[in-house]
Amino acid sequence: MIDSKVKEIRDFCESNSNSDIIKKYQRYFKEGYDGYGIDEKTFKGQIAKWTEQWKDEMSIESYLSLGDELMNNGRFEEKQVAISFLKSCRQDFSKDTFNRIGNWFDYGINDWATTDVLCMLVLSSLLFDKVIRFNDLKTWINDESEWKRRAVPVALVELDKLTKDLKPVEAIELIKPLMLDNSQYVQKGIGTLLRGLWKKYPADIEIFLMKWKDKCGRLIIQYSTEKMDKEYRKKFRKSK
């Protein structure tokens, strides 16, 4: 059953590939874009059709197995399909779901966009529904994969969109071990998180930034302060 689903997904992707869209997407992926270049409306419409057609024959375990295959051997859009299918099984999420998607970083997730979609559609729901806790996410902080490490702050960005009540002390405690991370993608994720929290808790975030401004990566400061007044944010420049 999984093999036939993979073939159907692949046939659709190949028949809807667009060279102009491939060229467009290549600009956004420094690490390289290995995709088909499919029109977004067409792509999302087909995912919705598959989800409806297969809902009675596919379980969360089936979708995780399908995801394992697509992550291991699939291209960009195929990985997006795997994540979208898994989202439809939210009511069945468990700690095993978290562990299985964690494995995807070992052999399949290799760009910022796939990472961020996983955070938006799956990881944030796991946190929101309290299937996992922050301590579970903390186990990803020292991972070799920069994408898995990036998922930590980005998952909090997406969680805050759902709850609108993420406390700065909780976020800071989780990202603090990542403040010296050399990956620009991790730094951008942290900066985006802090920027969003600054809008609601400026004092807390500014105190935190002042402690780290001379040590952390500059992208963290750049992203976290970009909504501040131009003159005001100069105080967060690195001391000479």
What does this structure look like?
By secondary structure, the chain is mostly helical. It has two domains: 1-92, no CATH class; 116-240, Serine Threonine Protein Phosphatase 5, Tetratricopeptide repeat (Alpha Horseshoe). Helix content is 67%, strand content 0%. The chain has 13 helices and no strands. It has helices at 2-15, 19-26, 40-54, 60-73, 76-87, 95-107, 112-128, 134-138, 146-163, 168-175, 184-200, 202-212, 218-225. Helix 4 (60-73) packs parallel to helix 6 and helix 11 packs parallel to helix 13 (218-225).
- Corresponding CATH superfamily of the largest domain: ARM repeat domains
Strand count, sense and barrel status of the largest sheet are: none
Q: Unreliable stretches, pLDDT < 50, 5 or more residues?
A: none
Distance from first to last alpha carbon: 62 Å
Q: What does the average pLDDT come to?
A: 95
CATH level 3 topology of the largest domain: Serine Threonine Protein Phosphatase 5, Tetratricopeptide repeat
Sheet-strand content, in percent, reads under 5%
**Name of the CATH class of the largest domain:** Mainly Alpha
Topology:
Elements (H helix, E strand, L loop, with lengths): L1 H14 L3 H8 L13 H15 L5 H14 L2 H12 L7 H13 L4 H17 L5 H5 L7 H18 L4 H8 L8 H17 L1 H11 L5 H8 L15
Features of this protein?
mainly alpha, globular, 2 domains, single chain, Serine Threonine Protein Phosphatase 5, Tetratricopeptide repeat
What's the gist of this structure?
The protein has 240 residues and is an all-alpha fold. The protein contains 13 helices and no strands.
